[in-house]
């Protein structure tokens, strides 16, 4: 075989020097170092094949070389045809360059994944790689490279979680995905937790076509299976079925419906000319000193606006139990739980990257991009929430026995 022939280093040196004088690049498609890389790889794989056949012979298995295979390989040292042996039993799998791998540089793959995670289009990535490395990479090859993050993503999505989260925020983002020749809407539900040290962590990322009690029960059960034993307060935006689901798995968890979402939803039913006055009258409801005063101010709202706008007023009555949870705490905790702004701020960062995308080619394409964006964002989540020591002290007074089980000295 050619791979066993002695490599002519002197001939290679002459050709390399000649190529450099002719202006050929060191790397890239016609890089002068491509023949050397080709020789090293073919020699290494030939050595692996020899060892593989010797092992099988020692086990009494009949196997031998059976022709050659050729594939086009791309590397930073250049692009070339790699010739390797095949074995008759088809049991040989080279370690240095697996059968289906055609790009052999971690640096390049890391570059592609980094650019992809910043929302750069595959076309722009291809142009960048061509400009930087003189290498042509197709959309299919780029997809194969980025698909390498999927096992890591799945491992991250099923990782073990902490036993208690004082605060958990839930919200979703909607995207378009191609499915069976049509474009459908997908919702990614993100669960952002604040752990016992006050640091943020995305503890759940789920895709669903629809929401409901059954879906939410599977989500909450997944969190429990991954190690969560208690959630003190869950902040949501009025998602149907979620309070019932969390009560099934974590019956002691308090639910806080986002006040900001409630205000926005209320204003959908209010005429433009009345919105400013309506909002001003709402402030005494959610800015009251306590729950009782807030409800009294809601009754006053009803007396003034109830006949003209019965739908939004009735919505406040219907959701008052979960809208008023934050009144049980002082200002420090109220600011943290009365709205889902914490997770919405995270979503704004994600959308900065994904907003230029049209319809994703698959659920996996959507998930792997969001996952990479999450990794980039979470690198900055190294500090606890503002005044966390004070917040934790107050939580300890309220939830002392439940927190004692999880606090360490």
From TrEMBL:
Pfam families: Transposase_mut (PF00872). Signal peptide: none annotated. The keyword DNA-binding applies. The keyword Nucleotidyltransferase does not apply. PROSITE patterns: TRANSPOSASE_MUTATOR. InterPro entries: Transposase_mutator. GO terms for molecular function: DNA binding; transposase activity. One of its GO terms (biological process) is DNA transposition. It comes from the Bacteria. Keywords: DNA recombination, DNA-binding, Transposable element, Transposition. Required for the transposition of the insertion element. Belongs to the transposase mutator family. NCBIfam families: transpos_IS256. This is Mutator family transposase. It comes from Arcicella aurantiaca.
